[in-house]
Amino acid sequence: MIFKTAAELGGLIAAGETTAVEVAQAHLERIEQVEGKVNAFLHVAAEGALEQARAVDARRAAGEELGPLAGVPIAHKDVFTTRDMPTTCASKILEGWVPPYDATVTTRLREAGLVILGKTNMDEFAMGSSTENSAYGPTSNPWDLSRIPGGSSGGSSAAVAAYEAPLATGTDTGGSIRQPAAVTGLVGMKPTYGGSSRFGLVAFASSLDTPGPFARNVLDAALLHEAFSGHDPRDSTSISQPVPPVVEAARQADVAGLRVGVVKEFGGDGYQPGVLARFNETVELLESLGAKVVEVSCPSFDYALSSYYLIAPSEASSNLARFDAMRYGLRVGDDGTRSAEEVMALTRAAGFGPEVKRRIILGTYALSSGYYDAYYGKAQQVRTLIARDFEAAFGQVDVLVSPTTPTTAFPIGERADDPMAMYLADLCTIPSNMAGNAAISVPCGLADEDGLPVGLQIMAPVLADDRCYRVGAAVEKALEDRWGGPLLGKAPAL
Amino acid sequence: MTTLIPFDEALAKYSPVLGIETHIELGTASKMFCGCPTEFGGAPNTHVCPVCLGMPGSLPVVNEKAIEYAIRIGLALNCSIAEWCRFARKNYFYPDMPKDFQISQYDEPICFDGYLDVEVEGETYRIGIERAHLEEDTGKSTHVGGATGRIHGASHSLVDYNRAGIPLIEIVTKPIEATEEKAPLVAKAYATELRELVRALGASDVRMEEGSMRCDVNVSLMLKDASEWGTRTETKNVNSLRSVERSVRHEIERQAAILDAGGTILQETRHFHENTGTTSPGRSKSDAQDYRYFPEPDLVPVAPARSWVEEIRQALPELPAARRVRIKQAWSLSDEEFRDVVNAGALDLIEETIAAGASPGAARKWWMNELSRTATTQGVELSALPITAGQVARIQALVDAGELNDKLARKVFEGVLAGEGAPDEVVAARGLKVVSDEGELVAIVDKVIADNADTAQKVRDGKVAAAGALVGAVMKASRGQADAARAREIILERLGQA
Amino acid sequence: MSITRDEVAHLARLSRLALGEEELDHFAVQLDAIVSAVARVQEVAAEDIPPTTHALPITNVFRPDEVQPTLSSAEALSGAPAAEDERFRVPRILEEED
C-alpha cells in the first residue's frame, strides 16, 4: 500500500477497492516503524488523520463527487498554519503554538480531501539547506541516515522518500523544495511566485517564498500542485490567472521539438563530478528524445547567491520581528521587574537558533541607514539583471536546465557551523526565486562516488509551470524505462 | 522648573518656524488591511483577526476605500496624486504594534505637494503640504500599577489591539514660516481647517476627544533676520485644537529662554501636558532611531488610474472655504457673526434648518440663542441636543402661521427637548395655541377691564400707555396664549381709543 | 567591506537579541565573512538598473471596504504568554517611542 503513488491510491479509493481509513492507517503504521530513524515529523496527528479519512469515506459513501486526491495522505510542512495542530516552524519561539486559523494551502488540502498526517520538520523558519537548523533535532536522509535530507523542507522530503506519506507540501524561498527533492530522489516543484497562496505560510522572505509539492513522481506532484494552487484574495501577491495545465502536461510527457537551454554558468569548479556526469547524460537523453539543446549564458546568475543573502535576510529581519514574546509563543525572563524591551531581547535570544539570529543581524545590517543603498539596493538591482537574463534566455529556449544542486546529500554536521559552505547548496536554485519563474527538480540518477540521488532542475518562464511538468515527465519516463522503475526503488530498505 | 520668557519678548527677538504632522483615522467601515470593524469602543480584543494581530502567516490586503479617501483628501489639499506608489515597512519594536513594524509609506506618498489656506484675524496664510500618506494605527496600552495609569512607575501593561490596523492618513506640512507672533494661532487655525476639511469630505468624523486626530508639532526659533533655521523640537500627540496653540506658545517661550541664556536646543521628542500647558522631554534613546524602511513585499504597488482620480475630483463636495463665502453672503453675516456660528458648532444645523423651510434669520436666532443657552447649561454640544433641524423649522413655521408666538414657541422647544415628542405633539399635549377665538378673547378683555376699573378709566381718559398693564393682565389670564397685539386692539376699541 | 564586533553588537540591540559575549564573538567572525562575500553585488549593478522588489509586475490589488468576521477575544488571546481583563498582559513598557 505505502509504495503506491498518490494517483494510484486516489484511484483505488475512488473505485472502492480500499478506503481512506485503510490508507491512512497503513501510513501511520509506517510512520510508527521508521520515525525513530528518520525524524521527519514534528507532530503526527494520528487521531485527526483517521477522522479526516473517515469523513472522506463518508462523503464518498454519500455519493459525493470528490477530487483525484481525496483520501490520499499528505505530510504538511510545519510552516503552514493549521488550527487543529501546532505550528512551530521548528522554532523554540513558537513551541506549542496552535494558530486560530488555517493557511489557504491547508484549507485547500482539506477541501481536496487530502488527509493530513502531521507536520514535518524543517530548518527553523525555513532558513537552511539541511534541516539541521531545527530546534527539535535533525531529520535523516532515508538513503543514508547519516546524511541530510536537504532543507529547509527536509522533513517533507524525508517523509515522502521514506514512504511515510506519498505526498508532502513544502515552501521554496531559495531552493527549499527543489534541493531536498534532489538529494532524496524525489520530484519537487517551485511554482511561479504568486501561483500558490502565501496566506498562512509563516513568512521567511515574502518576495521569494513559494509553496509547492513533493511527490515520488511527476504526475503526483502535478496533481498536488493543482489541488492547492490558484488565486487567493487574501494574498495580495497572488496571481489571478488560472493555474497552468500542469496535470495535462505531466501526462503529455514529451519533448519533441522543444528547445532546451543548458545554463553555462552552472557547472565546473565546486560541482561534484558524479552530479555533472548524471546531468550531462540527462541532457543527452533530452536530445535523443527530440529536444533541441543549446547552451545559454546567464552571466548575472553568478551574483544571485550574494543578492539572495541580502534580500532574504533583510525581509526576514522584518518578518521575524513579531516574535517578541507579547502576543503568542515563548516568553523568557519576565520576572516582574524587567521591561518589555528586555523581555523581548531575552526571549528572542533564547528562542531563535544561531542561523536565524545570523540572518536577522545580517538583514538588519543590510537595511540600516547608510548601508541600504550599498547592500539591499544593489541586491535588488541584481535581481533585475537576473530577471533580464531569464527573459533573454527564454527568448531563445522553452526551458532551461541545470543540476539542481552542486553536490549530493552531505553528512549531517559537515557544514553546520560554516554558513558560507551551507549557502552553496542553493547556488543553482536561487535565480528562479529571484525572478519568480517556475522550476522543478526531478531525479536523474545516482552519483558514482556515493550512490546518492542527483536532481535535474528544469526552469520555465513565469506562468509556464506546465513546461516543467512536461519535460520532467518525459525525462522520468525515459529514465524509469532505463532503470526498470523509480529511482527511489534503489534506496536501501529502512 | 523650566524657565520661560514672556511670549511677546520672545517674538521680538526670534522668528518661529513650525511644522505640523497630523494623523487622522479614516472613516472606513473596515480596517486598512483586514476586514475587522473600525467602530470605536467594543470589548477589548474583539475587533481583531490574525492579520491585525500580526499573527505568523497573516498577510495584509489594502482597503480600496482608504485609498479613495486618501485621494479625496489629497485633492482637497491641492496635492498631486502619485501615478505609482508603494507601501513601506517602518521597523521598530513596540508592544502595541503587532508586527513590530508599521505598514506606512516612505519616499512614495500617495499625495504630495499641495497647500491649505487658513485665515487668522482677517489675514490668509497659505500652509504648504509636503505630503499625505497612508498607514495603520497601533493598539492601545493601559498601564497598570503606577500612579493613575501613567506609564512611569507601572508594573505592567495591558494591550488591546482593537485599534491596531485602523487606517490613518498622515498629513505633513512644509515648514511654516513668517507667521511671527501669530504662530500659535496659525497652527491652531491650520488644525481647525484641516479637521473641517476632512469632515466635509466625509473621509472621517474626526473626533479629537476619541483620539481620531492627533498632531505632532515641530517648533524651532531663529534670530529675526537670520537665514538658517534653529534646532527643532517635536511635541507629540497634541490632542485638541487648543493644545496645538498652547504647545506652540509654550515651546516658543521655553526655547527662547534657553537661547537667551546661551544654551542650545536639543533635537528631541517632547510631550504636551494638558493640565499645565507645558511640554517635557521624551525618553532619550541610546541608539539613534533607525527605522530601516523598505518596500512592503506583501503588498503590490498602488497606481491609481487617472480616470479614477478625476472621478473622485468631480465628486468632491463643497469645501469649507467655499461654503463659508457662500453662507456669509446668503445669510448676510458679518465675519464676527459667522465666527460665532462656527464656534457654536451651529453651521450645519442652521443650514439644515433653512433647508427645512425656515428663514436664515429665524434659524440662526433659535440655534444661537435659545438652543445654545440650553446646550451650555447642560454642558453638551449643540448637535447633541435632542431636537432636529426639521423640528426647529416646524416650530418656526407655526410662528410664521401665527399659531404660536415667540413665548409659546419657547415652551414648545422646552417640551421637545424634554422628550415630550414632536412640536405638533407638544403643542397639542400642552394646549399651546395662540387664542384666536375672537369671542373668547373679548370675554377675557371684558373681565380684565371690569377687574381693573382704575386702569381702564385712565385709558378712557386718554392715557393710552396704561393699556400695556391691561394687555399684561389679558396675557396672564390666558396663560400666555392670547395674541397680545389683537388683545391690545380690542382693549383700545372697548375703551374708546381705537 | 567588513563588519566589526561593535557593529554586530549594535545590530543585535537594534534587532532585540540579547546575545552573550561568546555568541557575539562567534557571529562577528561569521558575519564578517558573509558580508565580505555578499558585497560582490556592488560589482555588477550599474546605476541605471532599476531595483526589483516584486517578482511580478502586479499593481492595484484591493479589497472592498467590508467588515468580515473577527476572532473572539478568547481566540485572540489563546496563544498569549499572559492575559488579564481580556487584554494581552505585557511587562512594563518604557516610554512611547513613536
SSE diagram, text form:
The complex is a heterotrimer of chains A (494), B (498) and C (98).
Chain A: H1 6-14, H2 20-38, E1 41-44, H3 46-61, E2 73-77, H4 104-111, E3 115-120, H5 154-161, E4 167-172, H6 178-184, E5 187-190, E6 210-215, H7 218-228, H8 246-252, E7 259-263, H9 273-288, E8 292-296, H10 304-319, H11 340-351, H12 354-367, H13 373-396, E9 399-403, H14 419-423, H15 430-435, E10 438-446, E11 453-460, H16 465-483
Parallel strand pairs in A: 2-3, 7-8, 7-9
Antiparallel strand pairs in A: 1-3, 4-6, 5-6, 5-10, 9-11, 10-11
Chain B: H1 7-13, E1 14-25, E2 62-63, H2 64-76, E3 80-81, E4 88-91, E5 101-104, E6 111-120, E7 123-136, E8 140-144, E9 156-160, E10 167-173, H3 183-200, E11 213-223, E12 233-238, H4 241-260, E13 269-273, E14 278-281, E15 294-295, H5 306-314, H6 320-330, H7 335-343, H8 347-355, H9 360-378, H10 389-400, H11 406-417, H12 423-430, H13 438-451, H14 453-460, H15 467-477, H16 484-494
Parallel strand pairs in B: 12-13
Antiparallel strand pairs in B: 1-10, 1-11, 3-6, 4-5, 4-15, 6-7, 7-10, 8-9, 11-12, 13-14
Chain C: H1 5-14, H2 21-38, H3 41-44, E1 62-63, H4 73-76, E2 83-84, E3 87-91
Antiparallel strand pairs in C: 2-3
Summarize the structure.
With 494 residues, chain A is of the alpha/beta class.
User: In oligomeric terms, what are we looking at?
Assistant: heterotrimer
Residue share in helix of chain A? 25-40%
Tell me the total number of β-strands of chain B: 15
How many beta-strand elements of chain A?
A: 11
Radius of gyration of chain A: 21 Å
Based on secondary structure, the structural category of chain A is alpha/beta
Mean of residue pLDDT of chain A?
Answer: 97
Give the low-confidence spans of chain A: none
Name the average pLDDT of chain B: 91
**Cα shape of chain B:** elongated
> Are there runs of chain B of 5+ residues with pLDDT below 50, and where?
none
Order of helices and strands of chain A: HHEHEHEHEHEEHHEHEHHHHEHHEEH
Walk across the major sheet of chain B and give the strand order: 3-6-7-10-1-11-12-13-14
From the alpha carbons, calculate the radius of gyration of chain B and give it in angstroms.
Answer: 30 Å
Distance between the termini of chain B: 78 Å
Secondary-structure-based class of chain B equals alpha+beta
Strand fraction of chain B: 15-25%
